[in-house]
């Protein structure tokens, strides 16, 4: 039986020596050839200014590994949703840790792509009272206005898990498997769902409907 010819028998040789190697400075674009250094990957930064005149979520940040003691131009946000009059808008506070990248590696075009916490003291309070290692969704402001979604207990307001909308320790709506609890400093409404019957409790027994 005749041997089947291979690509090498036909004189074809593919050079893959540089496929898995990082590009050398000579292979970079015109920016590198003009003396501009490029920065790829993520760098730790700190928010210095979050009052964006354009209200587009831009930040001015300090990135010591790139700018030294200086601060950046306005860094554009990288957000999961956006469009005409729609999308997500967030502005990390001054002093917050942010991850910074650069468009095509150019330090004149920074992008902030996310945040990081430097210690346990910086993480949201609601996240600290959930079960460690169990997925939980927490969104909390500096004034402790929070949204919490959890499948596990979040004491004391969600003993069986559920959804919490909180405007402070005394003003919240808690929705869980056992019912709905609405609280404010002036009034309360508790709808429980025990086996066989439902109960509506207004202002701690002032009105009770079974």
TrEMBL record:
Residues 43-117 form the Gp5/Type VI secretion system Vgr protein OB-fold domain. It holds the Pfam family Phage_base_V. SUPFAM superfamilies: gp5 N-terminal domain-like. It comes from the Bacteria. InterPro entries: Gp5/Vgr_OB (IPR006531), Vgr_OB-fold_dom_sf (IPR037026). This is Gp5/Type VI secretion system Vgr protein OB-fold domain-containing protein. It comes from Dokdonella fugitiva. The lineage of its organism: Bacteria, Pseudomonadati, Pseudomonadota, Gammaproteobacteria, Lysobacterales.
């Amino acid at each position: 039986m005749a041997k089947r010819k291979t690509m090498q028998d036909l004189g074809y040789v593919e050079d893959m020596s540089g496929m898995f190697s990082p590009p050398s400075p000579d292979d970079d674009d015109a920016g590198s050839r003009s003396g501009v250094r490029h920065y790829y990957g993520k760098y730790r930064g700190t928010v210095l200014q979050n009052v964006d005149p354009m209200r587009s979520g831009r930040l001015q940040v300090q990135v010591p590994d790139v700018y030294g003691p200086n601060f950046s131009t306005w860094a554009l946000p990288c957000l999961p949703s956006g469009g005409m009059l729609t999308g997500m808008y967030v502005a990390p506070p001054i002093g917050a840790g942010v991850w910074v990248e650069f468009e095509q590696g150019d330090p004149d075009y920074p992008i902030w792509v996310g945040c990081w916490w430097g210690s346990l003291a910086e993480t949201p309070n609601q996240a600290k009272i959930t079960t460690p290692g169990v997925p939980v969704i927490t969104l909390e402001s500096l004034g402790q206005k929070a949204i919490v979604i959890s499948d596990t207990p979040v004491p004391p307001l969600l003993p069986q898990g559920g959804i919490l909308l909180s405007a402070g320790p005394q003003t919240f709506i808690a929705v869980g498997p056992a019912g709905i609890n609405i609280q404010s400093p002036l009034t309360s409404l508790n709808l429980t769902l025990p086996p066989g019957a439902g109960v509506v409790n207004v202002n701690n027994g002032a009105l009770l409907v079974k």
